[in-house]
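Hi R.,

Here's the input for the fe (ii) ion complex you asked about:
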Amino acid sequence: MRTDPTFQTASAADLDTMLDANRYRNRSRCFEQLVARSEEHFWNPADPDYINFREAVPPGVPLLPFDFVVESGTAVWDRLDDSQRLAFTNDSARWIVSNLLHCEQGALSLAAGLCQMLVDPGSQEYAANQVREEARHVHAFTLYAESRFDGQIFAVTEPVGDLLHHLIDTPQINRKILGTQMLVEGLALGMFATLQRVALDPVLQRLCRLVVADEVFHHHFGKVWALKTIPSLTEQERDAVEDWAEEWFQVFFSNLVCPDQKEALYARYGLECNWVRGAIEEAVGATGGESLMRRYAGPARLVINTLTDAGIITDRTRSTYSPWVGLAPVSWTVSTLSLGYSGLGSSFQN
Ligand SMILES: [Fe+2]
Ligand SMILES: [Fe+2]
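And here is the predicted structure with fe (ii) ion in place:
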C-alpha cells in the first residue's frame, strides 16, 4: 500500500537509515505546531495543583450515574439491593477505567514503535511527543485506580487485547496509524469527553478534561495521515482500509455493550454471564437497541465523523454505522453482539 513520504518507515533495527547524514534536514513541517504547542497543555498527574486524587467522592454518590450502567433497567437491577447497586456502578466505572488504562498503555507502546520506525524527523518528533503524553496518561489513570479502586485493575478484555496486539504486530504503517491515531484515539477521545460530561466524581471529570487536552493533538495526527494517504490509494487499497475500519468498529463497540467481557465483574455479585445476557436482551426487546447505544453514541459519532471526513466510510459500509447516528433502525441484538466476538476476523488477516 502506498505511503506518503511523511509516514515512510524503516525497520526499528535499521539504525543506518536513521544515521544517514542527508536525512535530518529532510523534514516535513506538518507537525511543527502540534509539537510546539505541547507545553500549552502540559500537566503533571503527581501534582495536586493540576489534579488532586485525594479529593473524596461525596458519601453515597456513585462515580457514574446509575443509568450509564448497561445493566441498570434490567433484571440485574432487581437482584441487587441499594448498596450493591452503588458497588456495581462503581465496579462498572472500574471496568471502563481499566480498559481505558490498557488503551493508554497500548497507545504508549504503539507510539514508541512509531517513533523508532518513522524516517521523517518531523513525524518522529511528533511520535516522541506522543509517547511522553501517553506515559502521562498511564500514570494518571493508575493514580486514579489507586485512589478509587485500591489499585484493583481489571484484566484487558479479549477484543481490546487482540486489537492492540494486532496493531503492534502488523508491519503495515497505514494500518498502525489508522488503528491507533484515528480509531483507538478517536474512541478514547469520545469516551473521555462523555465521561467528563456524565461522571459524578469530580476527580474523574477533571482527569478526563486534562487527558482530552492531549488527545485532540494525537487524533489530529491521524487526520493528517488520512488527508495525505487516502486520496492516493487505489480503489482496491481504499476498499481494504474501509473493510478493516468497519470490522474494527464492530469489534470495539460490541466490547463496550456486550456482557461476555464482564465475567469477572459479574462474579463479584453472584451473577452468571449468560443470565445477564438474557436480562439485557429482555430489556432491549422492550426498549429497543437504542437504549444500549445511547450511552456510547458520543464516542461512536466522533469516530464515524472522522472516518466519513477521511473518505473511509462510503455507501459500501454506511449501514453498519447508521444506527449509531440515528439514521437507521437498530437491527442487531445483544446475542449477535455478545456471541459475535470469536477473534479478529478476515480483514485483520490480510
Ligand atoms: Fe492517551
Ligand atoms: Fe493518545
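One thing worth noting: The radius of gyration is 21 Å.

Cheers,
M.
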